[in-house]
Amino acid sequence: MTNLSPNQLKQYENEGFVSPVDIFSKDRAKEIRKEIEMIEEKIPGELSKSGRYNAHLISPLLDKVTHDAKILNAVQSILGKNILVCGTTLFIKNPNEKGFVSFHQDAKYIGLKPLNWVTAWVAITDSNENNGCMRIWSGSHKDNLKDHDQMFNEGNLLTRGQTVNNVPINETKPLILKAGQMSLHHPMVVHGSDLNKSDDRRIGFVIQSYIGTNVKQMLGKNSVQLARGVDKFNYHKTIGRTKSLLNKSDLKVKKQENDNLQEIFYAGSQKKGEY
Ligand SMILES: O=C(O)CCC(=O)C(=O)O
To answer: I need a surface site. Which of 35, 174, 205, 274 has the fewest CB within 10 A?
Structure first.
């Protein structure tokens, strides 16, 4: 089943994103936030720096979001019926911290080819211009890959501070989402986000990304879960879904996956750090 409307598909084609798409209720978003914060409290550091990747492997509620039928119906409209999950990222911006995301293209550093993949940004809290929502350079996915500087700058939530310079801000659009809504964005579209100036956290849970079964990881290894359909290509190792919160063996799998990811994110870079 596919469910993006012709207008939403046109928006994706013309602008490189679809937003907003309703997924779940505010109350459900609150429950998910509670589970995230419970993990942060029980195992400090588990969801920060390189730990912010693949939280769906240790959190049953984030696992459910990752495999949510509504999200997959929308993703299927773009990728077709055979869909894998190849990772997730928590983008959390706390108030009074300097967190931001420099303008970049995901296709520049994620290593997935061909570009038959899409990223779902799911709002666990409201996300708006005051708390640093994503901004997208509309239509920029139609250009080639752009040069990115590696800035390694303080507060940048990207591993290497990958940055496209001279983005025309007046051609960027804020993706304003209520908790429980999502946006989908194209691997080539230039996007970033500014500081959180509010007095609450901004939490985005990002499935980064849903990939077609024909997509390979060119920069290293990353495991996948089958989200929908069949995988006739078997390019990747598969991992199971979590059955319980903070299960010990799931924590180990997450750690291994995130170590592999560091290799991918720092491929070709002289400088390494932990992020
Ligand atoms: O959460 C943000 O502000 C940026 C997220 C991002 O860069 C992405 O989802 O690709």
So the answer is: 274
